[in-house]
Amino acid sequence: MYQLCMAGRDLGGFDQNKLANLMKKGELEPIPEEYGPVLKKIILRMLTVDPGERPDASELLDTDLEGGLDEDKLRENLKKTTLPMP
Q: Which of 1, 7, 79, 85 has the greatest number of C-beta atoms within 10 Å?
C-alpha cells in the first residue's frame, strides 16, 4: 500500500529491502496529503518495526477509511509501479 501511494515519486530505486531499512531508521517519506488521515495511519501502523504493533487482517478489514482511499489514484499509481516478485 505504501508503494502504491508513493508511485511516481523519486524514491531512489525503491525495493522491499530499502523499505525495511527506511522503516527501521524511521526515515520513510511522508504519504501524500491526497490520501486521508485514516489510510495514512493504517499504512504507517503496517510499517511499524515491532510486528506486535501492526494491525492484523481482521482489523484492516474492519477499518472505515472515511474517504481516504482514492481508488482511481491507486489504480493510476499501480500502472506506474512494478512491485518486485519475491
A: 7
- Nearest alpha-carbon partner for 29 in 18, 17, 42, 37: 18
Please answer whether residues 7 and 77 qualify as being in contact, where contact means their C-beta atoms are separated by less than 8 angstroms: yes
Structure confidence at residue 85 (pLDDT): 47
Residue of 55, 8, 48 whose CA lies nearest to 28:
48
Higher pLDDT among residues 16 and 67, named by residue? 16
Nearest to 28 by CA among 7, 6, 50, 8: 6
State which amino acid sits at residue 50. D
